[in-house]
Amino acid sequence: MLLFGTFSNTHAQRKMIYEIVEQIDLSKMLYYYKYTHHENDKEVMIPMVLQVGDKVQRFGCLSRFNKDSLALTFENKPQDTKLLSRETNKLKKHEENQVETQWTLYLNYPKSKRSITDHIFLDQYLSEEPDDLPEWTLTDEEKTISDHKCMKATTTLYGRGWTVWYTPEISRPDGPWLLRGLPGVVVIAEDETGRFRFELQRIEHRETPILYLVKNYTKTDRYSVLKQKQKFFKNPGQFMMGTAVGAQTSGLSSSTEEVPYDPIRKIQD
Fold this sequence. Notes:
It comes from Porphyromonas cangingivalis. It contains five helices and 16 strands. By secondary structure, the chain is of the alpha+beta class. The radius of gyration is 20 Å and the shape is globular. 27% of the residues are buried. Residues 1-8 have low confidence and may be disordered.
């Protein structure tokens, strides 16, 4: 198992830092969503979690949430690699940790902005942009979902039309991804193609630290990251061979099949 981190040797023990995390707020409420999207004509389901703090919100996959929580227990200090291997293998045994998004979204961090962390191969990226809310069209259409009275709203966001069902019974403006700012919590959200869908699974009222994963990020705008991802998926082997690590990796072919790339945030040239 390959782990990236900082190594040290103490009394013949091999140690390394698993990940470095920083607590930026304390969440008192968690929303668990099921995120469904399509990759290569296959439906992929990813468990997601929205943490809501007094100042900051974080939305990302449950797998990353669990990894960062594990990192917090290690207090950013070098640990025995056998211990790290054992604990990370425990995480991987859980189905919820076997699939993940590469991005994590932080709202109102920094203040009045949002941050998106992402990675392509070994390259880490950070994008900051204004934390603008979608422009919603509210309707009188209603239906009951999981015993909650829900109302319909629509919006267009980054090139995709969305239909959302929110419940005024929980009068908070929270929702998955960037689909927020309504007079109630988002219960279901689906884009017009049916390729992207969020469904609220449950809500928990408990305190959890909102953690920021510290990396040597390249800071750039989100559009540039998505274009770079598009380039990567067009020929992953060639892209990786163009990196310092890839060029030194034996057996890595520069010719690989193109992988269709259709992100939730549509690439608009």
